[in-house]
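Re-run with default settings, no changes from the original entry. Doing this only to confirm the output is reproducible before filing.
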Amino acid sequence: MGKVLTGFVLAVLVCVSLASSQPPDSESTYDVPLSLQPRHMVDFPTAGLPPKGGFYVDADIYGEGGVLFYLGVGFARYFSFGISYGGLRVIGSGDPEMNPRPGVQLKARIVEESFVMPAIALGFDSQGRGVYLDSLDKYLIKSRGIYAVASKNWDLLGPFSLHGGLGYSLESENDNSATIFLGAIKTFGDFLDLRAEYDFALNDSWADNPHIADDGILNMSVIWHVNTSFSIGLEVRDILTGNKVDIDDLREWNRGLSIEYRGIL
């Protein structure tokens, strides 16, 4: 109960911050081109999306030899569609364990960012993270499912953005409540991002499911923009506590690598 209350209070504070006027001595950067707006923090979405005719090809490499491939395109000014697929032990030793089905990503921006208002997007993402647990009908880290997210940009010694949203995963009938996610991105120069996100994991029952610790999930990454089209990132996931695949198998935290290419069709 305390975790739910904390999540609600923090979500309200972030929403107030997103909707408030600009901080002193700062400038709005709400006119950042779509092609330069990040589509996600680490795993969680922002209100950013590719421009019309823009596309992206991503590869996320994570623990246990896991790889997730993403391919997406901007079909209209404020709508994008993507697919994803991958599995564990795609690289390294052992037999690959592929995901049971491809993931689907849809995103539509319904409110454009202004000097005062954040950008707001609605979306759907069926791609979870880690091993797929057949007995629980879910990924180790649930997919975002149906979500709404708000993003606000400022110029604070370079681009800085806050993001907050609600997600309702369609995985697992036992605990399919909504969850809250928050995050921030700070850009240094034209080539380096520091990103952090926190998932309250309110849609995973830690009382019945040992796979998600009740401290939530904290992820961070450092992204190097080699140029305007190509980026490489180092990611650290589950920093606070970790995930349990089996009772005796504790993964405190894990490192990953992300590769992203963006272009125009």
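Residues 2-21+29-264 form a domain with the Porin fold (CATH 2.40.160.40). Residues 4-9, 11-29 have pLDDT under 50 and may be disordered.
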